[in-house]
Structure prediction request, 187 residues.
Amino acid sequence: EGTMGAVENVTGVTKARGYENDTASTDGDGIPSHSICVVVAGGSDEDIAQAIQVHKTPGTGTFGDVTEIVYDTKGMALAIKFQRAVTATINVEITLSENAGWSLDYVDLIKQSVADAINAGLIGESVLITKLYAPAYLNGAVEGQTFDITTLEISKDSDPVSGSNVTLDFDDNPVCDPDTDIVVNVT
Prediction:
């Protein structure tokens, strides 16, 4: 937790997630035995590596697609590795029917609410479709009573939308732009 707190406090870091493999063999994500993998969005490579080096447990290996050389307090060069987050664009298609009081102005509110929920998701954590209904209904706001959702479907990147959850890889960062990644159909 100290390592993750230090990484999350690096200037420019927007998201980070840590994984630890304390077993004697490489895990399913490719993380070697007795190693940590810190997946990071934003921030400078050097600052992130320095934060990891200062806070990780001595003797623990690091894993990732970025290798940065940093120096300890004795001037010894250390190669610290970490993983850059991969953008996983989450596409959403919502079909709804109007009720009394409906306004087309609510479409942008719905899009923003759903995008905010997706963008708040953790790196590597599946996007659960059931968790998107509350934001799509505007979290109980009065405007949410003016429509009924008939379908809500999602996908990752260019996959076709469906009513299934989206499984993310351990280094995927869920990202959704309300203007380009969400379609709201009103019937």
About this structure: DSSP finds four helices and nine strands in the chain. The beta strands are 13-21, 35-42, 61-63, 66-71, 77-84, 86-98, 147-156, 172-175, 182-186.
